[in-house]
Design a protein that fits this description.
The chain is of the alpha/beta class. The chain has one domain: Beta Barrel (Barwin-like endoglucanases). It contains 3 helices and 6 strands; from the N terminus they run H-E-E-E-E-E-H-H-E. It has a 6-stranded mixed β-barrel. The chain starts with a helix and ends in a 6-residue tail after the last strand. About 12% of the residues have low confidence. Belongs to the RlpA family. This is Probable endolytic peptidoglycan transglycosylase RlpA.
C-alpha cells in the first residue's frame, strides 16, 4: 500500500515537473528595428564591463541578461547572425537591438543604418554570469 502511494506521488511529481519545464521552454522572440554602434564607441566600456569591439558579434538589448545568445534576422533580406548580449540599449524609441559593426554587416543593416529584424533567444545566459 505504501509502495503504491509512493509510486503514485513520484509519478505525479514527475509529471508536474515535466509540464513546468515544457511551459517555460518557449523561445523569446521580439520584432522591431535594429541599428548598429558608431565607430566612435570602439574600445568604450559596455554596461557588462567589457570594451566594445566592432569586430565581435555582440549587441545591446534593454532587458535580456548579459551573455544571452540571440539570433537576429533581417526581415528585408532573410539574413541572420548570432550575437551575444553584452550591453544595454538601444536608447532610441522603436529600436529593439543595437548590433556591433561585424554583426550589422553580416545581415546587411550597415547599408541602411536601421532595418526591421526579429530577435530570438538561442541560449539563455548561464547563472554564473
Amino acid at each position: 500500500m505504501v509502495s503504491a502511494i509512493s509510486r503514485s506521488f513520484f509519478l505525479l511529481a514527475l509529471g508536474a515537473s515535466l509540464l513546468t519545464s515544457c511551459a517555460g521552454s518557449k523561445a523569446y522572440t521580439e520584432t522591431g528595428k535594429a541599428s548598429y554602434y558608431a565607430d566612435k564607441f570602439n574600445g568604450r566600456k559596455t554596461a557588462s564591463g567589457v570594451p566594445y569591439r566592432p569586430g565581435k558579434r555582440t549587441a545591446a538589448h534593454k532587458t535580456l541578461p548579459f551573455g544571452t545568445v540571440v539570433r537576429v534576422t533581417n526581415q528585408q533580406n532573410g539574413r541572420s547572425v548570432k550575437v551575444t548580449i553584452n550591453d544595454r540599449g538601444p536608447h532610441v524609441k522603436g529600436r529593439v537591438i543595437d548590433l556591433s559593426k561585424k554583426a550589422a554587416r553580416k545581415i546587411g543593416v550597415d547599408k541602411a543604418g536601421v532595418a526591421p529584424v526579429q530577435v530570438r533567444v538561442v541560449r539563455q545566459a548561464s547563472a554564473a554570469r
